[in-house]
Every structure is written in structure tokens, then in C-alpha cells.
Design a protein that fits this description.
2 domains; three-stranded antiparallel sheet; alpha+beta
Length: about 250
């Protein structure tokens, strides 16, 4: 058994010095190699290639990918521009049919109200397969002022804009200019009107409002076009013969 105070042997001293020397010589290079590998492995794969041709091929691939991305963006921009240009050309050359003015000659109790609508085509091509339809509503002042009337009028306009079929071979509204108008006459007491109606005392005295709604349908540049409009009469507000324009129910596409 060795004594605690025994001195190390010559062999032990040699082994200890050899271990220290090996550690001093080997550890630093290993650490440098480890640091270099970490820096190297974090770079793009083509930088890790030692072959110059491989590196060049990597750069060509990246350049090609960038060009593809730029080309894609240019294509999207061109597509958007083409769509905008097409819409502008259609808007500039299509037919645009809408009302110019609506009039009534007089309001008399127990008599039908005759409404005349003057309309025109301010576009550059004829409005083919032109079709029109009218309707009217009577609103008490409470309903007229509360917003309930506006909701009904907006609903009628929305239904007009959703029509997706019209008969071919109907009328044609040719482009107009200046003070040239087409005219439509609608009478609430006409025998052809399924909802025959005569002016009431409430209309004459202003306790009710009389609203006329119209819908124009026509074909232009191979698409069905829509125009909805709303005009109204209210005693002490409307100055005859011209009707007032409703705040809702006037739309076109």
C-alpha cells in the first residue's frame, strides 16, 4: 500500500507531462476547426462547394430564380393593367341608358297620376333589347321619414340589378345628344296596370309620399346592363312638374 505522503514515480511524471503537452497541442486546432465548420456550414450550399463550376452553377440557379420572381410580378402587373384598360374601353364605348327627368302634370284627388319619364342613351353604341318596367309605392310620412321606405326602395333596386335574362329582339335605344330624349308614360289608373290606383286625400295634402320606381334593362357589348331609379312626389316639397330624386334606389352597372 502506498503512503499518502509517497512521492510520484518517474513514470507517473512522464505520463502527466505527456498528457499536458498533447492537450496544449491538440485542443486549439480542434477548436479552430470547429469554429471554421460552424461558420462554413451557415453559408449557402453553393459556397460549400470546392469546385468552381459547382459554385457558378449555384449562382446561375439563384439568378434564374430571381428572374422568375421578377417576371411573375411583371405578369401580374400587366394582367391588372390589361383588365383596367379593358374596363376603361368598355365604359367609354358601351351604351349608357338612364332617366333624364320625371314629370307629372298635376295631382288631383280620385284621379290617376300620369308620370312621364324622359330618358336618353349617353353612350356610344345602341342599347339593344331595351326593356323597361315601372312600379309605384305610397308611404305614410312616418314610414317615409323613419327609413322603412328607404329599405323597401333599396330592395326593389337590388332586384332590378339582379336580373340576368332579357328577351332578344326588343326595342333599341340609340345614342342621343343634346336635348334629345326618349319618353315613357305611366299612369297609375291605366286599365293595363294591375295595381290601378287614384290619388288620395293624403297625397294631395302631404300626409303621404308617392314614389315611382323604374328599371331599365338592355344589352351592350355582349352583357346585360341595368339602371334602376326612384322619383317621388310630396306635397309642399315637390315643385311640379318635375319630380324629386329619391335618396336611394338609383343605381346602374
Amino acid at each position: 500500500m502506498n503512503s499518502p505522503n509517497a512521492q510520484p514515480t518517474r513514470m507517473q511524471i512522464v505520463r502527466s507531462r505527456s498528457f499536458i503537452l498533447m492537450k496544449e497541442r491538440l485542443i486549439p486546432p480542434i477548436q479552430k476547426m470547429r469554429s471554421a465548420w460552424q461558420a462554413w456550414s451557415g453559408r449557402p450550399w453553393w459556397f460549400q462547394q470546392t469546385d468552381p463550376v459547382a459554385k457558378f452553377t449555384g449562382w446561375v440557379a439563384i439568378y434564374t430564380a430571381v428572374l422568375c420572381g421578377v417576371s411573375g410580378l411583371q405578369f401580374l402587373a400587366l394582367l391588372s393593367t390589361d383588365r383596367t384598360t379593358h374596363q376603361a374601353l368598355v365604359a367609354a364605348n358601351r351604351a349608357w341608358v338612364g332617366p333624364a327627368i320625371g314629370t307629372i302634370t298635376s295631382i288631383e284627388k280620385d284621379r290617376g297620376i300620369e308620370v312621364t319619364i324622359q330618358y336618353n342613351n349617353t353612350g356610344r353604341e345602341p342599347a339593344f333589347d331595351f326593356f323597361d318596367t315601372f312600379d309605384y309605392e305610397i308611404f305614410p310620412m312616418l314610414e317615409w321619414n323613419s327609413g322603412a321606405a328607404a329599405e323597401k326602395l333599396s330592395d326593389w333596386s337590388s332586384r332590378c340589378l339582379k336580373v340576368d335574362k332579357i328577351s332578344r329582339g326588343a326595342r333599341v335605344a340609340y345614342p342621343t345628344s343634346g336635348a334629345t330624349f326618349y319618353s315613357l308614360i305611366y299612369n297609375t289608373d291605366n286599365a293595363a296596370n294591375k295595381r290601378r290606383w287614384k290619388a288620395t286625400e293624403g297625397i294631395v295634402e302631404g300626409r303621404e309620399a308617392f314614389a315611382v320606381q323604374g328599371c331599365f334593362l338592355y344589352r351592350s357589348i355582349d352583357a346585360i346592363r341595368h339602371t334602376s331609379f326612384c322619383l317621388f312626389y310630396q306635397a309642399n316639397v315637390t315643385k311640379l312638374p318635375a319630380l324629386n330624386l329619391c335618396t336611394v334606389g338609383n343605381e346602374a352597372d
